[in-house]
Design brief:
Blueprint lengths: L1 E5 L7 E2 L2 E2 L1 H18 L3 E4 L11 H16 L5 E5 L6 H4 L3 H5 L3 E4 L11 E7 L2 E8 L18 H10 L8 E7 L1 E3 L20 E3 L8 E5 L5 E2 L5 E3 L16 E6 L8 E6 L6 E6 L1 H6 L9 E6 L8 H6 L5 E6 L2 H13 L5 H13 L5 H13 L5
Parallel strand pairs: 1-4, 4-5, 5-6, 8-9, 9-12, 10-11, 12-14, 17-18, 18-19
Antiparallel strand pairs: 1-15, 2-3, 7-8, 13-14, 15-16
The structure holds manganese (II) ion (MN).
Length: 384
């Protein structure tokens, strides 16, 4: 059985106010090309189809085009997709029964009631049946009606749900899931673009995946395996933060052989129509990098000039037309950072403002300004 695993499309996501719809359309077109070439039996999409619960009309169109293209390929293909934490489970479920007749299986909501079970899709190959368990993003609060007596952790919620499934371990079983799996001393490598609850309360113990022959995971935006050779996060289809600038984006082709044999994993590369890059240097060095051309990549620029140009953005925009941010790293900004880290926290509001004013204006306050500040602080009860 061959299937392709992708996740975290985040259609409609913006990168520092730039719409990424064109890039996303191009990336999904490449997924279609891979499907055409590799001829998998299934495509699994492990959540975060859209970036927001109420995606724009344009975002919905991009996904609609993608599904239509896959459906139009002249090959037997089953598509399974689940909701991630960014999706609206109920909206995603729209027309699911109709689409299921076209072998497009959408699961927005996890089981909510006693009698409901995790949705499964069964496919056959020469070695027999493969069961796909489609478990969308789960929070303990969703399961109040199934486990009314208990206050569950994220980890317990997922484990208890799967325990009710009576999974037949003589068959090959594949889980599609969208959670923060960690455990056995391992925590996935995150980036700046996924939402993770600080403190790790949303962690799900990776042990619950043991029963599966492959786990197609979503939620973490960097491609990686977790726990063992059969549990994979495939990561996003495009770098969704500057922290992913050097990441290679791929989707995963899984070849599942006989029961008990480790799956063969192949990463299929995606070419970025526009790269996300970090550049660092003096303004002259950075301008010279493009060798007189206009660079269309998304760039985060760190300027290191000690003597700062007066309008750096205007200068840089001549050679770079997709600037994400401009940062300055020199003696002045490092000093500001040090001040911010150490001193400001312990200062009284009056002193803190005096420092701030001095840094901003390069001079002390006049007597009139000083009096005004004291008055304002007194009114607010911030003056001793
Ligand atoms: Mn995501």
């Amino acid at each position: 059985m061959r299937f392709i695993h992708l996740s975290d499309l985040h259609i409609g996501k913006q990168l520092h106010h730039y719409s990424l719809l064109e890039e996303q359309r191009a990336m999904l077109q490449q997924v279609v090309e891979h499907v055409k070439k590799e001829k998998p039996e299934a495509v699994l999409i492990a959540g975060d189809i859209y970036d927001t619960p109420v995606p724009s009309a344009e975002a919905i169109s991009v996904f609609d085009e993608f599904l239509t293209e896959l459906d139009g390929l002249k090959q037997q293909l089953t598509i399974c997709l689940i909701a991630g934490n960014h999706d609206s489970a109920r909206r995603l479920d729209y027309a699911r029964e109709i689409l299921a007749k076209h072998a497009i299986h959408i699961v927005g909501m996890p089981p909510l009631l006693q009698e409901e079970r995790v949705k499964t899709v069964s496919l056959q190959d020469a070695y027999g049946e493969v069961m796909f368990y489609l478990l969308p993003f789960v929070k303990p609060a969703y399961l109040k009606k199934i486990f009314p007596e208990e206050s569950l952790s994220f980890s317990d919620a997922v484990r208890r749900l799967l325990e009710r499934e009576d999974i037949d371990v003589t068959k090959r079983n594949v889980l599609v899931s969208h959670q923060f799996f960690a455990g056995g001393g391992e925590v996935p490598v995150t980036s700046d673009s996924e939402v993770h609850v600080v403190g790790g309360i949303d962690n799900v113990d990776v042990g619950v995946l043991e029963v599966f022959d492959y786990a197609a995971l979503g939620h973490i935006h960097r491609s990686q395996k977790i726990g063992s050779e059969k549990n994979y996060y495939c990561g996003t289809i495009f770098p969704y933060s500057i922290s992913e600038a050097e990441d290679e984006k791929t989707i995963i082709l899984v070849e599942l052989g006989e029961k008990g044999v480790e799956p063969v994993i192949t990463r299929l590369p995606l070419r970025l129509p526009r790269r996300v890059r970090k550049l660092r240097g003096t303004i002259e060095e950075i301008l010279a990098l493009t060798m007189g051309e206009v660079c269309h990549d998304y760039v985060s620029i760190t300027l290191t000039d000690e003597v700062e140009a007066s309008r750096p953005r205007e200068l840089l925009e001549k050679n770079y037309d997709h600037i994400l941010e401009i940062k300055i790293d020199n003696a002045r900004t490092r000093k500001l950072l040090e001040l911010g880290d150490i001193e400001t926290e312990n200062l009284a509001p009056y002193e803190a403002f005096c420092n701030f004013f001095l840094e901003l204006n390069g001079r002390e306050m006049t007597e009139v300004e000083d009096t005004l500040l004291k008055e304002v602080l007194q009114e607010g009860g911030d003056m001793e």
